Amino acid sequence: MKRKLNADDVPEPVDTGAGQTPAQSKTGFAGLGLDARLLQAVAKEKLSEPTPVQVQAIPLAIAGKDILARAKTGSGKTLAYLLPIIHSILRRKASSVRPTKAVSAIMLVPTKELATQVTTAVKTFTSFCNQDIRAENINRKEDLAVTRARLLECPEIVVGTPNRVSQWISNDVLKAADLVHVVIDEADLVLSYEYEDELRSIAAALPAGVQNIFMSATLRTEVDKLTALFCKSGSPVVLDLSEQEAAEKPILSQYIVKTAEDEKFLLIYAIFKLQLIKGKIIIFVADIDRCYRMKLFLEQFGTRSCVLNSELPVNSRLHVVEEFNKGVYDVLIAADEREVAESGSRKVKKSEDDDIEDIEDAAEEEIKGVDDVDVDATKPVVAPPAKKQRKTGNDREFGVSRGIDFRHVACVLNFDLPTSSKSYTHRIGRTARAGQKGMALSFYVPAELFRKHRPTSILQCQYDEKVLARITAHQEKHGAKLEEWQFDMEKLTGFRYRLTDALRAVTRIAIREARTKELRQELINSTKLARHFEEHPEDLRHLRHDTESHAVRLQPHLKHVPEYLLPSGGKAAVQQDVGFVEFRKDERAGNKIRKAREVNRKRGKGAIMKGKRTAGDPLKSLNARGRGKK
């Protein structure tokens, strides 16, 4: 396009809209000033409009500002820092005559699962510029020599937990001298995972002038400590979207149910068999043993589920999440034992809204003082503290309620109420993501019903009412409301004998056997078959995580709901005829078999009839002249 000349025969500048806001110049991602190749990738992923945190954070990040952004889970925080960083790397490479190989960005995440998720996102949005941008996840389960070789090739982006990043920086393999960007995702969680020493080591190795970006779901004292540690030149720009989120129309419905300890299992049985909730469900329980108790209980009624906890190998956990997102499984039982461990090892003081240390300390004191309680009741009490978890092989860098991008989850079911309102907020953040509607259903045990059914009791339930009060106050402060789920428990009276049969079958020995068997099987799948699945990805469809454990004697009659047990309106929910068992011999089936045998005899099939059958003997039926000739 030709430009007009002024009086001095000099071309006049063209107004590019640089001084305008994105809404004034262009709409959508195109108005954020991103590289054309990134816009192609965004269009390929069918993302039409940026989220509020992306609209505010991307221009600031492109300008090189330090940013501290707080936005709810599922609001697009990952793309809010990925797109501007990739854009900046592409722009520097284009302007450099001889670009040198160097690590430009480090992205610190609290868990291995989130490291894999961020790396996948980088590869997705660099599909049109993958020759210029390469990302490496240094938390992959591989030989250290392989990780060292990948780092020596100087990828542009390195993703990992603070523990791994600090290790490779101290070994002088990961060069920090040329770093331009440092991102801490889920910033309020990294210190809770005991990464303070590693973060200090990383901060000391960073060059002056590096850009720092912090993403968090909450603004807490942990975040303030991180900003003071990394932002040495000044305070970051704070983006708090709380008011904007409160003004949005709620898409998450939150319900609570007051129930006894054994009635929790009765309710979840009714939910699945009567199809009261449809779609994918994540069930949060207190610890790993509780995970397998729930899995074995549901197996009694023919409901298959898969388990996710810190004891499983990381490859298996990642595969479970991936297959759950694809819709292979509909029921996921997650042990959120990490948030219990945090309460005993947290080093930073929490704010008043989320501070329930008095409750947690009281729970720990009571656990220590219990001597004369039956083993069934004390076995699943509370997850062991973090130090003990590392000794028993549980993964320190595991977290299921934070960061992981579960997709299209219809309901988050808090079978066991969490120990804090913070944990509750992050649990329910697994649903109602990316503008989709969702439901959060929580069971709580009142004080008068605690310990009334000892085999299914855990000490954590003793403080459900106090924790629920804090959760309710915290949610109301942010414009949300918890409502009572209207359900008549009397309609389930006919199911109680089935509940008793199922719970009686799920013993401590059965739970231990199921836990050991699954761990052994997942270890085999994770190590010996890893290379095979890399070479033959189509075989992954045969690898399932929801197979029946067979640790409990199955009772076939429990899988079906007889019509006489169904409450009013329940028959419509059950789409198939169930409960009918045929005791009489079906004479018609016998007649069919006899008729088939008779027809086969006439055709010459079956046993040779007293030497009269010659057509089936190839030697006697041989015709040397050919078929049809005599």
Q: What report would you give on this structure?
A:
- It is found in: Nucleus.
- It comes from Cryoendolithus antarcticus.
- ATP-binding RNA helicase involved in the biogenesis of 60S ribosomal subunits and is required for the normal formation of 25S and 5.8S rRNAs.
- Residues 602-613 have a biased composition (Basic residues).
- Helix content is 40%, strand content 10%.
- With 630 residues, it is of the alpha/beta class.
- The strands form two sheets. The chain has a seven-stranded parallel β-sheet, with helices on both faces. A seven-stranded parallel β-sheet has the order 10-11-9-12-13-8-14, with helices on both faces.
- Helix 19 links the parallel strand 12 (409-414) and strand 13 (438-444).
- Helix 7 (162-170) crosses helix 9 and helix 13 (288-299) packs across helix 22.
- The longest helix has 20 residues, at 508-527.
- It is globular and about 90 Å long.
Architecture of the largest domain, according to CATH?
A: 3-Layer(aba) Sandwich
Q: Terminal Cα separation, in Å? A: 93 Å
Superfamily at the CATH H level of the largest domain? P-loop containing nucleotide triphosphate hydrolases
Task: Give the CA-based shape.
Answer: globular
What would you report as the Rg, rounded to the nearest angstrom? 31 Å
Write down the CATH topology of the largest domain: Rossmann fold
Counted beta strands: 14
Query: What structural class do the secondary elements suggest?
Result: alpha/beta
- Give the DSSP E fraction (strand runs of 2 or more residues): 5-15%
What is the helical fraction, as a range of percent?
A: 40-55%
| Poorly predicted runs | 1-5, 7-25, 340-393, 576-587, 607-612
What is the count of distinct domains? Answer: 2
On the 0-100 scale, what is the average pLDDT? Answer: 78
Largest sheet, described in full? Answer: 7 strands, parallel
